[in-house]
Design a protein that fits this description.
By secondary structure, the chain is mainly alpha-helical. It contains three helices and two strands, in the order ββααα. The protein has a single domain, classed as Fe(II) trafficking protein YggX (YggX-like, Orthogonal Bundle). Pfam families: Iron_traffic (PF04362).
Length: about 90
């Protein structure tokens, strides 16, 4: 049986993640308060950010930047804007 969480991103009950996908306290917070659907949305944004900004996941500063964007997106419901990217529906 899948677990449900009150997803802070969706602002509703939704299917929770199967296991903690991110380390530490932040990972625990994500596991307990973010749904599979919201995490999938973040994964898409993360991929675009990494590609657009040419982030190096071996670089501490780039990882910190990505983590800040993740927290803003998932918990503060801030829209992540990617330079030069236009969502399909607004083209």
């Amino acid at each position: 049986m899948s677990r449900t969480v009150f997803c802070e991103y969706l602002q509703q009950q939704a299917e929770g993640l199967d296991f903690q996908l991110y380390p530490g306290e932040l990972g625990e917070r994500i596991y307990n308060h973010i749904s599979k659907q919201a995490w999938a949305e973040w994964q898409k944004k993360q991929t675009m950010l990494i590609n657009e900004k040419h982030l190096n996941m071996m670089a501490e500063a780039d990882r910190q930047y990505l983590e800040q964007q993740m927290v803003a997106f998932l918990f503060e419901r801030k829209e992540i804007t990617i330079d030069g990217y236009t969502p399909p529906e607004s083209q």
